[in-house]
Design a protein that fits this description.
Length: about 450
């Protein structure tokens, strides 16, 4: 779809908000909140009171494992109009605690790759992973972009809500509607999502902001998600409003203040990168390690993203150098190596492009010698669902290179990996056999 020309008469550029009701920047009107039904929110007359947002401030701690250490103040009970029901709120601190399910940053990246792979059924042919620069503060950001079916306004709200999932097919990897939130919040404090979609002949584009920094710095006690939508079916870009124009403008103002993009024009340029349909995710305010350095390293290899604290350093023996060159070691710190073994079967019309270069899929079982396939059947049940075919063999460098381990795949996706190097000690369950094997479960 060609980029649309915006109608000049639509008053969406004016960014002054109406503060008559005490609402300031980022005030949680109904249009801010992700709908509990997944549908676009409706207008409400409920009064709102929120503090004004400081300008472009960051969190007290930029280390992920310390960012959740703060005291939760008293929660003011919101005013409930007659006929309205109370709703269970989610405190922003839950975004952080929920993300601690990913101890490993690459595990979080894998969740976002899964979302793109699931879009293959909607026509996706690629997912692009890259580093971009945030102009506002000259900091790095992490980019994920695919050309799948995209999300309409309802889909965007389900994406930003906890526990909603539109994935019902047995072939999809994601199911529970939690992976996007845990993965993005594990990689950075903030994420902005752009998506274009065509549903029932109606073309839309949507922007959603999930910002831990915004929620913390404005003292929110509920997860507020500013979102704006556009109808691009006709010759003009038409803002979609569910309440008042002031509500829409307030959401836009919040997004511009707390996102990497300083103007509405900058936001619109992101859609030109997407094309007719697809999704573009920008994760920014990336987390630092305990030494105050970015967890993710973009400088060691122009075609890779690395985990700084996992990479090997210093001098090593020849045998250690051999081990460190093996994929079972490199996948600990190299995203290119890890992503190459992330999916068991080869994609036919889909590719993962990391920093401009497609990732070549690597199949460990293709490099095994003395290969055997064993069928695993638990003794406690006769259910066919738990029967697993397991491929066992020796790595081609054995016995000179002491690498042992196993990879477990579910729905074509690596869900458990374990490896050990002989110079660092063989796992106890192999001591008697003194074998060096790689096991791949399918």
């Amino acid at each position: 779809m060609a980029p649309k020309r915006e109608k000049e008469a639509i008053p969406v550029v004016e960014l002054d908000s109406d503060d008559d009701n005490g609402a300031g920047v980022g005030a949680p009107n109904q249009n801010n909140n992700a709908s509990s039904t997944g549908a676009p929110p409706q207008a409400t007359s409920q009064p709102q009171q929120q503090p004004l947002a400081p300008n472009c401030q960051t969190l007290d701690s930029r280390s992920f494992w310390k960012a959740g250490d703060y005291a939760v103040g008293p929660t003011a009970r919101p005013y409930i109009s007659q006929g309205q029901l109370e709703h269970a709120r989610v405190h922003p601190k839950f975004l952080h605690s929920n993300a601690t399910s990913h101890k490993w940053a690459f595990g979080a990246i894998a969740e976002l790759l899964d979302n793109a792979v699931d879009e293959v059924q909607n026509g996706a042919t690629f997912v692009r992973v890259d580093k971009i620069d945030v102009v506002k503060d000259n900091s790095p950001a992490l980019l994920f972009q695919d050309d799948g079916g995209g999300m309409d306004p309802e889909g965007m709200r389900k994406c930003m809500s906890l526990g909603y999932s539109t994935k019902k097919a047995n072939t999809t990897i994601g199911q529970y509607g939690n992976g996007f939130k845990t993965s993005t919040m594990r990689l950075g404090a903030d994420v902005i999502v752009f998506s274009r979609a065509i549903r029932a002949g109606k073309a839309t584009q949507s922007v959603g902001l999930l910002s831990y920094t915004f929620l913390r710095r404005t003292g929110q006690d509920d997860v507020i998600v500013p979102m704006i939508d556009f109808d691009i079916s006709g010759n003009w870009v038409e803002p979609i409003t569910y309440g008042s124009q002031d509500d829409w403008t307030s959401n836009l103002k919040t997004i511009l203040e707390w996102s990497p993009f300083a103007s509405k024009e900058d936001l619109m340029l992101q859609f030109e990168e997407i094309g007719a349909h697809g999704t573009r995710i920008v994760i920014y305010n990336l987390w630092l390690n305990d030494e105050g350095i970015y967890e993710l390293s973009f400088d060691d290899d122009d075609e890779d993203i690395r985990l700084r604290d996992e990479a090997a350093g210093g001098k090593s023996t020849k045998i250690q150098q051999k081990i460190q060159s093996h994929i079972s070691y490199r996948m600990r710190y190299s995203l290119r190596a890890y992503a190459s073994i992330l999916y068991l079967r080869t994609f036919t019309n889909f590719k993962i492009v990391l920093r401009g270069k497609p990732i070549q899929q690597y199949h460990i079982k293709d490099d095994l010698k003395y290969l055997e396939v064993k069928t695993y059947r638990p003794q406690i049940t006769t259910l066919n669902e738990v029967i697993v075919e397991t491929t066992i063999g020796f790595i081609k460098e054995a016995p000179d290179l002491g690498v042992t381990g196993f990879n477990l795949y579910h729905k074509n996706r690596l869900i458990r990996l374990s490896s050990s190097m002989k110079v660092y000690g063989i796992p106890s369950w192999l001591h008697d056999k003194d074998e060096h094997c790689v096991i791949v479960g399918q």
